[in-house]
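Following up on my earlier thread - several people asked me to post the actual chain instead of describing it. Fair enough. Here it is, all 435 residues.
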Amino acid sequence: MVRIQKESSGAGAVSDANNIATVIVLKYMFLVSLYVLLPSETATPWLSQEALVLQAAKHVKMAKLQRLLFNRKKDEAFEDRDKAKEERVFTFVADYSQNMYLPNFAEAQPGETYYYSPLNAYCFGVVDASTRPSKLSAHIYLEDLGKKGGDNVASLLWKQLQLNRLVPTDNSKPSIPAKEINFVFDNCGGQNKNRMVLRLPNLMVKRGICKTARCIFLVRGHTKNDCDRLFNLMKQDYRISNIYNLEELIGAVGKHPDVSPETVLEGDFCNFDSMEDKYMAKPLKVQENHIFEATTEDPNALYLYEYDGEAPKKQVLVRPPYRDIDWTDEALSLLSAKQRVGLQEIKWIELYDKWRPLIPVERQTFHYIRNPPTLDSRNKVKLHTKESKKQRKERSRTEEQAAKAEEQEEQQQFGGIQPAVEAVEKEVANTPQKI
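Reply from S.P.:
Thanks for posting it. Predicted structure:
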């Protein structure tokens, strides 16, 4: 049973996709007949080339159908914006922007700072597809607070559900579930397509947040989405301003009317991975599929689709002891804040020694710029730098020795014929040339 229904508005495009599929089947039948009739040495190279063509055709078909599904879910979210919650389809497009940096000297030429390492500022953007024009919620934090992994993405998606009042701020059970919630991502495995994010749909439907929860991934190479355009608008003021701290960065990105900056606070990142591991198994065959769906009809299972229109593959994720009970109260009580990851000591020293003198004193609000590194930190960095130089020297010496050994081996191998070659060259040189 195909769980995602096609709409009449996309009938023409679906017909085109079906035509592509028909051509692919006919090509496959033709290739099989060639394989049977032709000698193997003749057929195999040609078949391998045709296999690449078929693979490319399938890739284009998948990209087209996933894009149609994406657009359809956005349209449904916009059309349902005035309906009651239990009748609404919600669609959120989520992605990380390119890193921003602090301090940011955009008003002038970089000068010596070109060679310095600034502090990374991360922005996880979420667009609510029910808004026109599209509005971006920009969740911004610095690299000392957290990374850009699965727990970070799952935590910020949960926070976005709270901002949209789909989840109470105390994580209590909602009184009314939404009809459907869709998350749309690019195909980045490290950030989005991972076990932390893909088990959220089962948690959401079991908790009564929605009746259907779905993660939709665009096909690699065809991942342009609403966030990308708004990231560009978000950085308009950032690209022309000198910015020295997080507060000024939040102010700069929030100047555009379609951007709503959200400061990520300590405690916002939670251990979704370890919590989910207790109640659910890890999903399998993740990379080859592009739609992951859970419903209240079968909250223990995750349905995986290679692309829209394909038959689903069912994976029962919820562990046996929890399949017939509501385990979400206990699970959310186990959800705890992740520790701040901190900053590398070598970067702290560079921020304090090199960046701090360039920043006005009254704007030195960041901890690692305002406070000096400890003597112990400086000694560790010096020792590490010295050891790194020593390792590089040893590596260079080893490579040089290996090159000399290889050269000697070649000389031994070809040394026996060298006198003969020289004799021939001498004879040729002494032979009178005919004019």
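The chain has three domains: 8-62, 64-333, 375-415. That should answer part of your original question.
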